[in-house]
Amino acid sequence: MLNTLIEAFTLISTWEVIIALLAASVYGLVIGSLPGLSATMATALLVPVTFYLSPIAAIATIVAASTMAIFSGDIPGALLRIPGTPASAAYADEAYAMTRKGEAELALGAGVWFSAVGGIAGTLSLMILAPPLAEIALSFSTFEYFWLAFLGLMCATLVARSSPVKAIAAMFLGLLVACIGIENPGGVPRFTFGITDLFGGIEPIPALVGVFAVAQVMRAMLTPEPPPIPRRKFGSIMAGQWRLTKKYRVQMTRGNIIGIIIGVLPGAGADMAAWVSYAMSKRFSKEPEKFGTGHVEGLVEAGASNNASIASGWVPSLLFGIPGDTIAAIAIGVLYMKGLNPGPTLFTEKASSMYAIYLMFIIANILMIPLGIVMIRLASYVLRAPRSSIMPVIMLCCAVGSFAIGNNMFGVVTVATFGMIGYVMEENGYPVAAMVLGIVMGTMVEQAFVTSLIKSDGSLLPFFERPIAAILAAMAIGALVWPMLVWAWRRLKRQAPSAASSR
Amino acid sequence: MRLPDRVTGLFLVGLGAAAAYGGWQLPPVPGQPVGPNVFPLVIGSGLALCGLAIAFGIGNSFEEAEEIIPLEAGQTRPTGKLYGLRALLPPALLLLYVAAADRLGFIITAALIVYATATALGARWKLSLPLAVLAPVGIHLIFSKLLRVPLPAGLLPMPW
To answer: Which letter does DSSP use for residue A206 in this model?
Structure first.
């Protein structure tokens, strides 16, 4: 244990890792603070760069960029009422109300402080949860993996903003994308339509870059430019944070726990965690009437929550290759490229690398406090950069980055295509995160499914025979039936008062 | 590009059915009951079922539209058919890159992309022109020099 820890320290104390961590932190802070550029997009655009780094440095960039971006989304939320990333959307109104009351320092300070606390809590959960789960997962057969994957896919409904059916459809679409290529049980070209470039299948990373970055540039084409930020002087940013921590320690802990749980659930990530925690905070607050008027309580809980979900999102990703959120989906792609294939054996064979990941999360979250304060002070300059100068650079990064993944122009075609798919889907209420879940998990789901079917020789019984498989199956079936019951119940309730006005 | 649920739902039904049919047509692995054909069959059927449910409006009980960037007072969202087509510019430019980069080279194609994107987002030439010169050179420096991505030289090779 101690040896592994020392080994992990030596792994991360190289210049390459330190520079990568710092550069990615600054990058994450800037991208996260620019409205319309999300943390996922920041991570996706980093991937081509990670190619040329050592495995640990590559993971360091992703850890640092995603952690920083989720915090710095709070900055324009508080100053402009425009969330920098969707994860800050839940409490942007509240933070802006505080700024108008003259409490911008307190709002932003709470953002940076409780983000760091949440991030560290999330890391602790990763350290505590992952190794014992890996022990259990070592004895998993394909039946358990099948149900686990099934449960993971069912979680697609969690990211549904509108209708869960659309989320499931988006998830199926992702699985269908994963069907393309010759990497299937029969090794035959499937859905390739004679195009040789499709034989290798659709690479997840260009697809994700398209869905998160190109689609965003497309949306920017049709939305008005956000107003420039008013220049202002800030007082002490960290003043009063310790008092808040003591006053709201229950809220903070609850936020951490909710964030960790939502992070572990496949597909659902920081934005979901923030929404749920903000709602929880309001629901259980002693003074709910103050919410919406510039009250810091919700900020504490939601800020602690969204950053906690980032680290805990790595738990299912490292253990099973099931992405805990969209950022972890990208991380999985990078892990595969770097020979750190997700799986329970990672924790026994590559234990020092795992410790290095924990350490990097903790370092990134501590680093967030000084860098975050600098970023807040510089925000009025960074946010002055017009969108018309940032989006073109992002376009170039999309083109070059997707080309670099295979040194192949087909990557660029993939990016463009998935940009369009992602744009149309989001416009019509199909959650892109659900499709990403399908794309990333597709191959694994099919393998578990087909291998299980072959082993069971057509009988359904073996799917339920092993104890853990039976538990997972019960959960999966419950998750499938529950929303239907809720829907039917709502429908019955609604039918009575107003059948005509509802649509 | 907001389409009625009926349209997207029926499209998914078609896609799902096509996938299921296409999967079913695949040759099975000899001597084995399940092969590459099973999974697309399941996925396709699932997709088609979801599509049907969407087309008939089942399960969209909590539909809520969300606006990330609120409109200012007095600001109106421009409408018109051609305005919506602006969204297609980014993918079109990427496809232009695929078609032209090998012949024109990275720098020229990238400059075109930057200029077009910046202008479409409302930049004046005083901003977009210098940007179109500097951004491609900067990106070329990072990706070609530092990361050794073989970017096409084309008509205007860089001295490094």
So the answer is: H
Contact A396 B113 (CB under 8 A): yes
Whether A212 and chain B come into contact, CB under 8 Å, resolves to: no
> Are B36 and A400 in contact (CB < 8 Å)?
no
User: What distances in angstroms separate CA B124 from CA B116, B120, B129, one per listed residue?
Assistant: 11, 10, 8
| Residue numbers in B near A388 (CB within 8 A) | 117-119, 121-123, 127-128
By the 8 A CB rule, do A214 and A432 touch? no
Q: Under 8 Å CB-to-CB from A266, ≥6 apart: which residues?
A: A151, A152, A153, A155, A156, A316, A322, A323, A324, A437, A441
Q: What is the rounded distance in angstroms from the CA atom of residue A34 to the CA atom of residue A390?
A: 9
With both helix axes pointing from N to C terminus, report the angle between A296-312 and A270-284 in degrees, rounded to the nearest 10.
140
Terminal Cα-to-Cα distance of chain A (whole angstroms) = 59
pLDDT in tens, A464-485: 888 888 888 888 888 778 767 8
- Residue of A185, A214, A388 with shortest CB distance to B36: A185
Question: Do A214 and A418 contact (CB within 8 A), yes or no?
Answer: yes
Overall average pLDDT of the A215-224 stretch: 85
Across the interface, of B98, B118, B127, the residue whose CB is closest to A412 is B98
Residue A162 reports pLDDT greater than 80:
no
pLDDT at position A407: 81
Q: How far is A413 from chain B (nearest CA, A)?
A: 6
Tokens at residue B8, please?
């997207």
A22 touches chain B (CB under 8 A): no
Strand partners, A190: A181
Of B51, B63, B75, the CB nearest to A163: B63
The three-class DSSP label of residue B60 is coil
Indicate which of B41, B43, B129, B145 best probes the interface with A, i.e. most A CBs within 10 Å of its own CB. B43
Which residues are CB-neighbours of A191 under 8 A, at least 6 positions away?
A: A176, A179, A180, A181, A198, B19, B22, B40
Widest pairwise Cα distance in chain A: 71
Helices (H), A338-409: 346-349, 351-382, 387-406
**A355 pLDDT more than 80:** yes
CA B1 to CA A378: how far, in whole Å?
A: 37
Dihedral sign for Cα A348, A349, A352, A355, please: negative
Contact B47 A176 (CB under 8 A): yes
Alpha carbons B134 and A295: distance in angstroms, whole number: 45
DSSP-based three-state secondary structure for A190: strand
**Best of B143, B146, B151 to disrupt the A interface by mutation (most A CBs within 10 Å)?**
B143
